[in-house]
Design goal:
Largest sheet: 6 strands, mixed
CATH topology of one domain: Rossmann fold
Number of strands: 13
Radius of gyration: 23 Å
Structural class: alpha/beta
CATH superfamily of one domain: P-loop containing nucleotide triphosphate hydrolases
CATH class of one domain: Alpha Beta
Number of helices: 9
Length: about 325
């Protein structure tokens, strides 16, 4: 049922709500949610919790009272200046990074792949609109050069190319999330897989450009038993915590760094730096290295801000305790 297994059975028992029933969140409308309890789909509100699409929850009387511990979390840093995690989807097995053949930006693909690795899901790259490209094979080779071993699938919703390969990934009970910018063809891809127009789309201009119609996150069930979570195009794909995720995308750079003479090499002026040598002889592309360093800086900034917030919360807590103790002392002296 919608990916329910022994893991969630155990987590549900740990919640300790005997009158509640398990259900999965299949759409997030902001004010309320659409959930499926295994037999029917219904609306529900949330009380003191903030579930995401894909979450398994404890439902009682139309109210979501608890979220089961997540097996995988697909998230980003929320837009704005506040350092806060925004969970976009939960309990995802596969992350499909969707790229339109008419708008290939390998630096953006690297960023999305890093977010995919952070989630704990297995990432793959889906190249859409291959029928609008003069050389889809060369685009595939370009994407493979930055995909760090992740599968690259060339597709066309017009010709049907690549759809069978995607279906192989969407085995029963598996959940995937589509990640990509507006106009990448995510909703059109879902419609092509389903063989019917379920997700709204706009007509695509002859240049291949289009706008994403998805306004909310939604889990779509496939006839084969698999599930796809569609997301609105991300204007800001800011990384959250987990610098280890970069190793999945930039393993070539991290392997080079291990060959540097100094373990704390900054890869700028130190002698015996394997990375500066690779940049000089062309084995490492400057743009790829700059992308790596930029993502590193983002993750470190998030970590620093998160630590600062925790320290501030701790100081506030002890300040409140101190004030309470002083008030108690004054009361006892009376």
């Amino acid at each position: 049922m919608l990916g329910w297994d022994s893991y969630f059975d155990e987590k549900f028992a740990q919640i300790g709500l005997p009158t509640a029933t398990p259900a999965r969140v299949i759409a997030d409308f902001g004010a309320d949610y659409l959930i499926h309890d295994g037999s029917s789909t219904k609306r529900a509100s949330a009380r003191r919790v903030d579930p995401a699409v894909g979450d398994w929850v404890a439902l009682s009387g139309g109210v979501i009272g608890a979220i089961l511990e997540r097996r995988a979390v697909f998230s980003r840093r929320a837009s704005g200046t506040e350092t806060k995690q925004q969970v976009l989807a939960a309990n995802v097995d596969i992350t499909f990074v969707v790229v339109a053949a008419t708008d290939v930006n390998v630096r953006r693909v690297e960023r999305y792949l890093a977010i995919g690795w952070q989630s704990g899901a297995v990432p793959a790259v889906i190249l859409t609109k291959a029928d609008l490209s003069d050389s889809p094979d060369s685009v595939r080779v370009e994407l493979e050069s930055v995909a760090a071993g992740a599968q690259v699938i060339v597709t066309s919703s017009v010709t049907g190319e690549g759809l069978d390969e995607i279906q192989l990934q969407l085995r029963p009970a598996r959940t995937c999330v589509l990640l990509g910018p507006s106009g990448a063809g995510k909703s059109t891809l879902i419609n092509a897989i389903l063989g019917q127009d379920v997700m709204p789309t706009r007509e695509i201009h002859r240049s291949g450009e289009g706008r994403h119609m998805t306004s909310h996150r939604q889990l779509v069930q496939l006839p084969t038993g698999g599930m796809i979570i569609d997301t609105p195009g991300l204007r800001e794909a800011q990384l959250w915590e987990g610098e280890d995720a970069l190793g999945g995308v930039f393993d070539d750079i991290e392997e080079l760094a291990l060959r540097c003479r100094f373990s704390d090499c900054s890869h700028v002026t130190e002698p015996g730096c394997a990375i500066t040598a690779a940049l000089a002889d062309g084995r490492l592309e400057r743009g790829r290295f700059d992308s790596y360093r930029k993502l590193q800086r983002e993750l470190r900034a998030v970590a620093v801000r998160s630590d600062a917030r925790l320290r501030l919360d701790e100081r506030r807590k002890w300040k409140q305790i101190t004030v309470a103790m002083r008030a108690k002392d004054r009361y006892l002296r009376r």
